[in-house]
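Reproducibility note. Readers wishing to regenerate the assembly model reported in the main text can use the exact inputs given here. Chain order matters: entities are listed in the order in which they were concatenated for prediction.
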Amino acid sequence: MKSSLLWKRVWRHKLFYLFMLPGIVWFFIFSYVPLYGLQVAFRDFTFVGGFTGSPWAGLKYFHQFFDYYQSSAIIRNTIIISLMKLLIGFPMPIILAILLNEVRHVKFKKTIQTLSYLPYFVSWIVVVTLLQRLLSMYGGPVNDLISSMGGEPVQFMNNTTWFYQLIIGSDIWKNIGWNSIIYMAAIAGIDQQLYEAAKIDGASRFRQIWHVTLPGIRNIAVILFILATGSLMSAGFEQLLLLSGPATANIGSVLDVHVITSGIQQGRLSYAAAVGLFQSGIALILIVTVNWIARKVSDVSLF
Amino acid sequence: MAKLRLKAVCSLMGVMMLTGLLYGCGGGGSGSGDGGGDAADGKGTTLTILNNWNGSSGPDTDTTPVTQAIEEKTGIKIKIDYTKGSEVEKVNTIFTTQDLPDIYTGPAWGGELDGIIKAAKEGQLVDLTDKIDKYPNLAKAIAKENVPPALYEKAIGGIGGKKYMMYQNQPATGNDVNDWLYGFYVRKDIAAKVGVDPQSVKTKEDLYQFLKKIKDANLTENGMPVMPLGGFHEGWAVGIGNTLFYGTSYVDKGDGSLENVFFTKAYEDYTLYYRKLITEGLLDPEVFTQTDPIANEKIKQGRIAVLAAHYPAILDASKDYVKSHPGSNYVPVGPLERAGAEPNRPVDLSIQGNNVTVITKKCKDVDAALKLLDFLASDEGFLLVHYGVEGVHWEKVNGKPVAKKEWFDKFYEDTTGKVKRNEGITIGLENITGMDRINSVGGGDIWADQDRLAAMDNARKILRPNGISVISAYNPGDVITKSPDWETLKPSMDQMGDVWKQAIFAKSDDAALKVINDLRDQIKKTGYDAAMQYVNEQLKGKEVVKLAMPN
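Running the prediction on these inputs yields the following structure tokens for the assembly.
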């Protein structure tokens, strides 16, 4: 009875569901169909056997990863970089959205918004090339400026001292605008009467942010935080591949890059799949745990 | 009515998006079978060739005078794809995704060859055992006497008793050996400024002092500092100073048995020497992370005093700067001493540039592929591919090919090489022309200008005072790949290069040695001792490579 009601409702809103269809098909084809390939983590991949016909290997490749002398360092690096991105990078779009919300000059606000979105559409290879040019010790404008002020040139790239700053800074610069869109939308949805009531009560702009804006975007922030914890085992493949060099390998080698180098460059597909599966397994556990904590603490959760 | 229209539009949009998505997933419907005429004699067949050499590139269109001439001779059209990026990655990708060309050609060493051997073992290549003898030019190039012994046993001679691979570019005669003249080269004007005769630099200490003098001179170019030592993309080939410390990758332990040089004191000394160069600002710290365009930019701006690479690359990269700054050409440093080699010993060269070619299981016409390859490996094919069309691009004078002035000038003026490629020359086909006969059959590099030839000759005189000797002994590096432990050992051994780079950037000498020792432990743990025991058993009584210079 209940299900026939559901289908009736679906049929009534079929146009909206039709709009969802391409998204659903996309997810099905690119996110669910490839799941069958996970079995290769438990097989000895051969060209002739492929994903389904290669001989079973059990947990051989998981053992290989944990026996690998740098596995703990790679996991540690991944978690450190992801945690830093989460803790420093996560509040940034919220701050930007709130600041933009306080801007009253519409044209200025729109310009800042557009400028902050732009880096999101620039590929990492371009961002890193730009950084290399800007920060080069030989003719880079940043070092030229430092030298002109009497300072010694600084080697920013391929230097452990500046590695985290570059990784986190470039990540924030690239994503802050795009990630702020959802908060802007959430802020736009806050009832304006709440602000007016706060004003009548004598609340300053800061108090209005504290007591109206932040509670208004709390739920969306919690949900995005839960989703972000799912990426804790993934520090960002392209960025780390391009920004990490031999000098920073001890703190810059991460799981994503290890998966690609062992899988594609060394041709160890089963091993790479095993490492990738381990990465995904931990991510799933993290999401479920954080979701559970969020539900207990704030009544906001994904599921 | 409006609602109905909206519904219709929405439905149409949905269907269009879905169709587009599914079409995109299907790869647009093009398969590997397109373009083939499949005639029994190969006529009208279009064969795809993957030229798996990083950075190679082709003409603007598939049809060039040279490919047209090939089609006239064989009836076969060709379409060449090129690799931009890692060759190993490409090999692994094509077989994993089954996006296979008809003909594959690529390096005859390292992970690239390992990938091809794996493909042969797993039924991805055409077995040529019963076919190859019908094609004399191909058969000659894989004859045992024309292939380095360890490579013959490892791959060319057969995998599981079956022959899959064709072999190219091994010099046919001593006169055909291509010596790339790897070495350290200094800008003549800078050497003069710091008052050092480049030929007086002989030892590692001399080299260090020379670089230090350049550093201490605080030279600048357009307000930017000049770096004492630099190289090209990802550090190529600054590490060639290794020959100052050890002879080759596998050395005698002293008891007649071999071990990988990574486990020796000489390797530690080599690492710490380079660490000193980095720490003291003598080696460009960006060298291992830079791309070729950035490396070339530094050279074009005159910001690198000493370059380590092969000479043709240095001549190409410095051409513009030298043109605008006469007297600033790069000249050889040394010859530097070679660890373990008598001073009067000819330089031991391994032959690089060697090529392995295979026909994949998806080849639409195996006989046509063999016919094509056999023609390219003939003398006629060799001359056509290397020099262009006879009578158009070159002509024979006293029996030897000589470039026509019109084309020589056109190619000389075009620094990009595009004009030459559009004629069908240097488009990758030169990798599949059988044994290298550039001097014995051809007339050398007929497109090189006199200045370049003179510079190469001068460098050869300086760096090869005792001549050269082509290595024909067994290379333990080839033998170890046949050991039963290789599968588990290879991932650890593959990291030696990366770990060396990490070590030279370490905070201290101790930290550098720790980085090396950590990998040594891992290599040991993954079967090194058993693999080396295998190598030593296999090579007992055989002549083994003890000295090798990069080439």
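We highlight two features of this model. The domain at 45-122+172-298 of chain A is CATH 1.10.3720.10 (MetI-like fold). The mean pLDDT of chain A is 92.
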